[in-house]
Amino acid sequence: MLQHATELTREALLCEFQARPEMAALHSAASLLERRLAGEPLQYVLGESWFYGRRFTVDRRVLIPRPETELLVETAMTLRGAMPRIDGTLFLADIGTGSGALAVTLAEGVDDCRVVGCDMSRDALAVAHVNRVRSSSGARISLLQCNLGAPCGRVFGGVLGNLPYIRTGDIPLLSREIRDHEPISALDGGPDGLHLIRRMVEEAPGLLLDGGWLLLEVGEGQAQEVMSMMAARPRWDALAAIPDLNGIPRVVQGRLTCSSGGKVTRQSA
To answer: Is the bond preceding residue 151 a cis peptide, omega within 30 degrees?
Structure first.
């Protein structure tokens, strides 16, 4: 907070610690401290958060990007060579884009891709727009206000979903930083936490090219149930759950098999 208020780097702040900062900077730091002591997350206090080594603008209109969501990026990077393309371009959908951190990271990391970030919240998309504009790959990112991925107007080689998965009954048990400050709509996944994830599994075949991949972030203890609901529906294979650094199955992946039973279809735009 002192760095933010004084606009000094960490090193400069430490070197100049003996010097008295300007009063305006001290007042600004005190104001930030008051907000933090009231329980507001540090990322909202500073107006920024780090994700996959990049800085993103965030505020109370969007969920703060979590480190575990970086596993979605890593899984997509691993599978990108197996994802079908349209005229040589890999189209990816980021469902529930929020701040746009995932969409921007994908566009920055995959040179031949175009990303559509979808969210129901106009407020969230306003924040995502700020982060898209700041990105050197912003021209390859589109933002769309819609319910899940419909209507997107196209099909994708990969659909990634970081959807709400907290059980409604567990919301009051969350820390005050989360419960009182982050948007509940981005957290509440319904009675079993899987309301929107279940819908995403049902609707994803209409968003994917043959051979396309669905990647979903899930909560602790949910991976097996999500894989079971996918296995119970036709045309899903290569189901797997990828653990995060804590060993918790965090990302569920599945591939949409070819409807014709033949080769993967690569459609023209």
So the answer is: yes
What CATH number does the domain located at 63-256 have? Answer: 3.40.50.150
Q: Which amino acid is residue 188, in one-letter code?
A: D
Residue 235 contacts residue 256 (beta carbons within 8 Å) = yes
172 pLDDT more than 80: yes
Spatial CA neighbour of 62 closest among 144, 122, 2: 122
Q: Where are the domains of the chain?
A: 2-37, 63-256
On the question of pLDDT at 264 being above 50, the answer is: no
Q: pLDDT-derived band of residue 266, with 50, 70 and 90 as boundaries?
A: very low
Q: At what angle do helices 70-79 and 101-109 cross, to 10 degrees?
A: 30
Mean pLDDT of 21-41: 87
Closest CA to 210 of 96, 87, 86: 86
H-type alpha helices, the chain: 2-6, 10-15, 23-37, 42-46, 70-79, 101-109, 122-134, 176-179, 195-203, 223-231
Helix (H/G/I), strand (E/B), else coil: 117: strand
Q: In what order do the strands lie in the sheet with 113-119?
A: 141-145, 113-119, 90-95, 156-161, 208-217, 249-256, 236-243
